[in-house]
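Record type: ASSEMBLY
Status: queued
Input:
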Amino acid sequence: MAGAHYDEMRDAGGAVRAHFRLLAAWLADTPAERVAEKRREADLLFHRAGITFAVYGDEEGAERLIPFDTIPRVIPQAEWSELARGLEQRVTALNRFLHDIYHGQEILKAGVIPAEQVLANDAYEVAMVGLELPNHVYSHIAGVDLVRHDDGKYYVLEDNLRTPSGVSYMLENRKMMMRLFPELFGRQSVQPVEHYPLLLLETLRAAAPPKVRDPVVVLLTPGAHNSAYFEHAFLAQQMGVELVEGGDLFVKDGHVWMRTTAGPQRVDVIYRRIDDAYLDPLAFRGDSVIGIPGLVSVYRSGNVALASAMGTGVADDKSTYPYVPEMIRFYLAEEPLLPNVPTWQCKRPEDLELVMDRLAELVVKEVQGSGGHGMLIGPAATPEEREAFRARVQANPANYIAQPTLSLSTCPTFVGQSTAPRHVDLRPFVLSGREVKMVPGGLTRVALEPGSLVVNSSQGGGTKDTWVVD
Amino acid sequence: MLARVAGRVYWMSRQMERAESMARILGVTSNLVLFGEQELQRQNLLAPLIITGSAEAFFARHEELSVEALIEFLALDRENPSSIVCCLAWARENAHAVRWQITSEMWETLNATWLEVRALDPKRITGAGATRFLDWVKERSHLFRGVTYGTIMRGEAFNFSRLGAFLERADNTARILDVKYHVLLPSVDDVGGALDYYHWTALLRSVSSFETYRLLYRDQILPIRVAQLLILERRMPRSLAACFDQVKEAMDRIDGQGDQSAKRLAYELHARVTHAEIEEIFKNGLHEYLTDCLTDMDELGSRIQRAYLGDV
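Status: finished
Output:
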């Protein structure tokens, strides 16, 4: 893979691309010790502010910093505009799809997607059938993962439609860069991202039951030991809404209420950062201690909104992913602006055979997996790992998909005492309320090990500030 | 404010105050046992266990009553829920759960305290090391109180923090006085010798009021005046009167039209120390008076829990 990838800063001939020129000049002028010193300062500030990431399985209370890289990733405005159009198109089609499968099921009748792919999916939620949602929006916040291949084009890797995380790092990274390197922002105009919490609040308020005039929004977290707790607390604070746990909410007289010191207060919109299965022990998992008994019946009566809606997972499942381009054509009568990565579905015998033959070249993923777990990167795996994974796939083919190993683009990254290219991806956050909105850029994740393609923070990946510049 | 968050803030402050109280009690005890005949020494060693109601738990784990065993049990034992290290761990745990609703300085103070306690070598907490440790606990409590007062918004979190701290402090003052009085002097008219004098000053020092006593009374240390100071003197910040002033004020500021029973009881306790004469208290029995106060404070704690904090 080495050498073949697209570099964000330099073209194939080694010349600095136009939109990176100011940054490259600054890098050349700035001694490495100064960058290293600033990096240490950033670590200290992140630690002190408690911008940490809890790690499952570590010692109780263990918290880690997500490594922050001080060299931003730069995207030219024209390129971002293209991306933004593609993202809006994709998320719009996905929301149309979700509305359709819980109503007329036109796409199934037309045979565009096999009915069992949708109706037999674990994430398909019968309780959602026929329910009318404000603006027909199911996924209010989507974090779409994009990668740039060696052909220079962006591809969609995953649609995270339920509870994508990482936006707090996008915001904190920008704040940190402005604090550490104010001179950089004087040299060129970087498009702002700081208004994201306002847009998010606006989106959540737009999701409220239509008859509510001044909706009360809360953010529902599984609690302080959740790995993304920092983000939950951060977003609640930035929006000025209450950060609640399941025990803070209860159902009475057909509404959801929160327990406050001044008595019960009605809640209209719940931005939930917990999975469907844990929402309501009466409807789903009876052993859930983080859910709210009776929530689903209030939801079904239209007296409270959930963001995202229940049953959204059927649309961002990796086995549904291959059909998204068809959804776009079906609902919007447009050609997809952002391509999918070619995907083989192991449930098809002919695909399975091909995947088994080419295991050493492919990336194989669990349909329901996330966070970089339950996957095999063929070229990086040892023969033993490949054979172990082969057995798992053959035991349950329908649970796996496979894709070619993409050569993620690289971006200069500060490692050790100097800069070196490291692989990156991009997660923009797409908000769907009355209309679709996003802030320019998103979260850039970076694999810090040389040659590594794993950018997930749970596996040691870092993050960068992302600049959209004119 | 969310009931759960208020509960965490209330207990965070209570646990920190409790750690400080324990440090005070142990500090005085380790001084007192240097004097007196055996029976008195034993009484002095028992006092902290009686004050904290943990004599039974202590003897289940220790055969011999000594200063070392007391420190081990009341300061360092992670299995004793009212030990200093447990209180500090709980205070930190509560702060962790609401770190975005309190100020970062408050969180950092409790977190740093906990990190230091975790790194502690128990072997060094003996003799002079114990005194240093107990002083350090007091300092961390002072620091936390100062940071809280200096940084937190005057809203519900502040009210519940005060409520927790002052209810705990009142509880502690009442217990110390009750037990020590019992150990030292069964009769009001007794005037003790030099050893008694030493004990009374130690008691006053344990609640930081030796200097205050000197300033206010400019006289020898009389038991009835000690009681006056610790119960009714509202200028003395650890007296019941001063604590109930703070409790009442915090209660007044808390929103909520629902359950008024907690407010009613807080007013009652406040009135009880406002319109009282120490001579009358003694006539009816100091022990009975303090027992009543402690029972009502306990009840007030339950009512606060019920009215505002949910089932934490």
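Annotation: Chain B has two domains: 1-152, 156-312.
Annotation: Chain B touches chain A through 23 residues (CB under 8 Å).
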